[in-house]
Amino acid sequence: MYFKQKNKTAIRSQRMIAEALFSLMKRKSFQQISVTEICKEASVGRKTFYRNFELKEDVIDFQLDLLLDNYKMELASLSFEQYLRHHFVFVQKNADYFIALYHNGLSSFAIEKFSVLHPKTIPVWSEDPIEQEYRSAYIISGIEAIQRVWISRGCVESIDEVVAIAVRAQDRQVPLR
């Protein structure tokens, strides 16, 4: 858990710590990084770290929340295909961060954050809320799988290619009814 700060200095410290962790993750694995190293890289003391975060995993959670704040504001009025494009543009824009998470076995943090957002964008296919919930979960897992493959490949395919793959996969699904 990280502490939601209102003080500008504390928020700046949180961002510096997050940037430091990301910088370190480019050079070494997450498991090998200590809180002391993060603090040294961020030029903050350990007390500052622990005033803002309980664990170094909380820094990942904080950074994902920062990234997703802008992402969430733009979702409301998008069609499914527009949403897919928006999603993959966002991932590509932050590819270095997501690649670092995936290479460090931390993709579950991103998947958890996205899984909260995805259901709001999935089209309604059924009047039955239970069927809709299962269908949405099925679609979401497909988006996450495509994202995982794309990131593991270094985001080399274009946004248009990835969106087309996701749309074709959706179009070819076997109906649940």
Keywords, separated by commas or semicolons:
177 residues, mainly alpha, 9 helices
Account of the 3D structure:
With 177 residues, the chain is mainly α. It is built from nine helices and no strands. The mean pLDDT is 86.
Give the helices and strands, then pairings.
Elements: H1 8-25, H2 35-42, H3 46-52, H4 56-73, H5 80-93, H6 95-103, H7 107-117, H8 129-152, H9 159-171
Cα Rg: 18 Å
Task: Please state the overall shape, judged from the principal axes of the Cα atoms.
Answer: elongated
Describe the sheet with the most strands.
Answer: none
* Secondary-structure element pattern, one letter each: HHHHHHHHH
Q: Name the structural class.
A: mainly alpha
How many E-type strands?
Answer: 0
- The termini sit apart by 41 Å
- Provide a count of the helices: 9
> What number is the mean pLDDT?
86
Fraction of residues in β-strands: under 5%
Poorly predicted runs: none
Share of helical residues: 55-70%
